[in-house]
Amino acid sequence: MRLFIWCVLLLLFAFAFYLVVTQKAAPKTRMLPPVVITTGTAQKGNIGVYLDAIGTVTPVYTASIFSQVTGSVISVDYHEGQLVTQGTLLVDIDSRPYEATLLQAQGTLERDQNVLEEAKMDLQRYQDAWARNAVARQTLEDQEKLVKQDEGTVKNDQGAVEYDQLQVEYCHITAPFTGVVGLRLVDPGNLVNAGSGGTSTNPLVVITQLQPITVIFTIPEDSLAPVQAQLRKNAVLTVDVYDRSGETKLATGQLLALDNQIDTTTGTLKLRAVFKNDDFALFPNQFVNTRLLVQMLEGVTLVPSACIQQNGQASFVYVLQDGAVHVRDVQPGVSDNGITQVTGLEAGEVVADSSFDKLQDNAKVSVAGEAGGAWGAHASGAHGDHSPHAGHSPHAHHSPQPDQ
Fold this sequence. Notes:
Elements: H1 2-25, E1 35-37, E2 39-41, E3 43-59, E4 62-65, E5 71-76, E6 83-84, E7 89-93, H2 96-131, H3 137-170, E8 172-174, E9 179-181, E10 191-192, E11 205-208, E12 213-220, H4 224-232, E13 238-242, E14 249-258, E15 268-275, E16 287-304, E17 309-311, E18 314-321, E19 324-336, E20 339-343, E21 350-352, E22 365-367, H5 376-380, E23 396-401
Parallel strand pairs: 1-22
Antiparallel strand pairs: 2-21, 3-12, 3-16, 3-23, 4-11, 5-7, 5-10, 6-9, 7-8, 9-11, 12-15, 13-14, 13-16, 14-15, 16-20, 17-18, 18-19, 19-20
Helix pairs in contact: 2-3
């Protein structure tokens, strides 16, 4: 009986020991709540390859007009900052001395023209007499040479008349092209000298063309090849201009020309773009930010740039499927304005856009808001402006465009 009791006790003790060991060995599992994330949706769209640079507004024509005659200023016929058309009278110089000289030259011309006519009449008489053998050959030849001398005199007089007429015209200075005049530099009664040298060091007026107007900017020499490739196809490359801060778009124009050599000190090339400037938003010598559209990529997959994560040299995204996220390797392409072109995703796939420090492969998640709500309108809506960030260096950047 005692042996039986001891066996029962041992069995109970062994069972109790088993229960204690089993409870200690069992891991304490705790259900973690799903990670709350926001999401973005991959969509098909268009994205532009842009070159951002800084530039300077440069007029097509700028003229500092000097007097070509010496005389007293009678009147200044422009207002400061006035928009004048070609041929508008700007400054009047006293032309009376030149008109008097012109009158003298015209009188000399009329006299010598009559002398020439008289010589031609005598020549005709000598020719008729020579036909009847009534005059010597020498007399006829002398008269022929006399006519030629008078013709030369008349030509000299005509040149003097035209020169004096030009001097009179120079007294009435007009605008050589349509543009805006600057501040007044001369007053009525001032004596001006001919030419820009000597004592006449200041121009009478400075006029600048504002419509159209150009912007000169530079691009790195490494970016020249894709630009030339587009120009060889006769493509019209669009250039957008923004203010100094890079926030406000001022004008849209097109690339006009490339410089003929690269600056070896900076490794950059100058480009010129032309703008209509109908609203006078661009002003000469203004500092601006430019964006040159080199190429438009159409029908590519676009995602918010914030969705793309880096692991060394590799790029990946967290794709949402069945309440969990899964790591997917992608190859990002051009990007700008918070959107990036990628390969490795299909349009419509939803990717994580936040809480990356808490995510891992196959992690359970819950979506905090509508997928793609933060940028879907940008990718599929109307075309919008894409302004560069202030302080960008002139390197390649890219901007997305909507489906068309």
